[in-house]
Amino acid sequence: MSTLFSLKGKVALITGATNGIGLGMAKGLAEAEIDQIILTYRSEGPLERATNVLKEINPKVVISAVHADLGAGTEDEVVDKIVTEAYAVAQSGVIDILINNAGINNRHPFEAFPAADFAEVLRINLQIPIKLTQRVGTQMLKTKTEGRVVFTASLMSFQGGMNATAYAVTKGGINQFTKALSNEWSSKGIRINSIAPGYIDTNLTGTMDPQHRATILPRIPIGRWGEIDDFKGPIVFLTSDASRYVTGETLLVDGGWMGR
């Protein structure tokens, strides 16, 4: 059974993995003995902390980094930089796993939602992940790599939320993109799935209104907010042979929230 969940010999590229859910996912990859993790980052401090955490888990894992500010320059410039530098440092010459995790949430009532804030959420949460997937996935097809692509979706892939229309649009889009792309690429050896987190203690949920936060815990059947380590198992499952017949799915990791 351990070989079913092993990631030995694999190389993963993951965006937004220097903290929060992305770091939890990267920790899972390291524990599954993956050969190399390529992280995108914006600042040195979080990158150094994340690298230390991952090396402590698995001293043998190779940690590489690509500097990428997803909000700077054009979308194509950002994606070109990530892809070019990631393949340059990939020790095997291929990327087996792509995890599109980076995301933001700007909150405003829709009638007062600044156009720039709305566009920023669409860019970072939806447009860049789609373009990055196209670039990396095309390379996977050329090299006949048995690829795995995983997106971070959300409860708002299924629900509307409040004062977060841009976020809901992007996460609903990720859910549908997962299904549509799976239909095209699964027969070609690339599985496409998403993970939909529930309410998790991260910097992103820290922006929520305190009164709203207070109403959440009583509605989570498992009785607690999620933690980043709750994503170690799900990401290893979806990127390993343990899920070899799973594609086009959005896996809820929500403590039972959606079943309430």
TrEMBL record:
Keywords: NADP, Oxidoreductase. It holds the Pfam family adh_short_C2. Belongs to the short-chain dehydrogenases/reductases (SDR) family. This is L-rhamnose-1-dehydrogenase. It comes from [Candida] anglica. The gene is DHG2.
